Amino acid sequence: MRGARLDGADLSQARVTADLTGASLVGASITGANLGADMRNQSMGLIRTVLKSANLERLDARGADLSRVDLEFASLKGADLTGASLKGAELGGADLTGVTLVGTDFDSADLASTKLIAAIGLDQARNFDKARNRERLIREWTGAGVHRKMKPPC
To answer: What's 24's DSSP letter?
Structure first.
């Protein structure tokens, strides 16, 4: 399903394990969906959903399980991740500009080079202090493609 075009799709409550590298789910809904890796069934290696370089702008992911999902370089601009689980998710290079993070669980999520600009509800996110590579977050743009890394709140 690499490169799939699922803009506006309703995948609410669905169980998804697929390689969606480069896919487009602009404005789609995965509310309450389970895209996380099933850790009880991993004898042959980590089988998980891959959304690397996917366009997930304005995605409705309220309450979704995105545990251990590969979201590297994905664009989640304006997405609603209220109550979602990002436990162990790979978010390196992802763009989380303007996302809603109320109750989002970041336990062990990798935030290396993740853009976290103008996020809504970050102060209400869960386990943000347990995320990996928080010191490598990109928190504020200063213009002309130059960014300043700011120390995230504890």
So the answer is: B
- Residue 116 φ then ψ, to 5°: -125, 80
- Give the predicted TM-score (pTM) of the model: 0.86
* Residues paired with 85 in a beta bridge: 65, 105
Q: How many CA atoms lie within 13 A of 87 on its CB side?
A: 14
SS3 of 43, please? Answer: coil
DSSP letters for 53-99: T-B-TT-B-TT-B-TT-B-TT-B-TT-B-TT-B-TT-B-TT-B-TT-
Instruction: Give the residues of the chain that fall short of pLDDT 50.
Output: 142, 144-148, 151, 154
* The pLDDT of residue 48: 84
Residue 59 and residue 90 in contact, taking contact as beta carbons nearer than 8 Å = no
Cα atoms in the 13 Å half-sphere on the side-chain side of 142: 6
